[in-house]
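*** Backbone structure tokens ***
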Amino acid sequence: MALNPDAVGSTSDPVDVTWDSRDALLYAVGIGAGHEELQFTTENTKGVEQVVFPTFPVVVGWGAGSAMGKVGSFDPTQLVHGKQAVTLHRPIPVSGTVTLTGEITGMFDKGKAAVIDSATTATLDGEPLYTTTSSVFIRGAGGWGGDRGTSGPQNVPPERAADHEITYVTSRDQAFVYRLSGDRNPLHTDPGFAAMGGFDTPILHGLCTYGFTGRALLHAVCDSDPARFRHIEGRFASPVFPGEALTIRMWNIDDGHTVFTTSAGEGETERLVIDQGLLRHS
């Protein structure tokens, strides 16, 4: 098995994907929203117009539009989701049909491993709606002598107390709801499969933790207004187990930038699960 470094720049065939109000509602409850966020979790509350969480693009057409099929061969069991970003060109409508096109934007040789960067662009009515970018880390896939790429700290919080801090407690059954938005990987629900990966119990989807984080940022920094939420990025640092508390800490850097971290657990068990976090907002 070998990766093909010449795949950088390769694109997928465009594919159309449709979602509706129900999909947006299901995603909202999958990332823990409920009775206190009726604009995201209901479509029939008097005087409340339904809106969509800005991180919703990570589940739209789950897996559709990806160009990863162009990168060559590798062992999928050795792939780990490294980073994720969502850039919004305008708020996500409650329902719509977008055309997705994926591109391989980078491939880096880390020696014993490889990192692949990719992007997916969504257009609605011929105009850009959002772009998602991600990096995956593939153990055992490096060693072809390619560029190592950049490394080192990014979006480091200042050495002072956070300007905002929100803690959400995930449900022990959180993964069973979140998976209905598209990611049916048994790692998140099947104890036997999780054990093969070295876990005593299934772990929560990383993008579910990402959604909880975006939800906190939206409410604390953007006054719950999706139109003010422009871009989110972060690195997955450690797995989360369903039922754990998530604490999102936010530091305002200037009028349009906030850096953040997400930690799981409490007290001595608290650990960093998302770092290098950046929100761009208005």
Summary: The mean pLDDT is 96. The radius of gyration is 19 Å. Residues 237 and 273 are 5 Å apart (CA to CA).
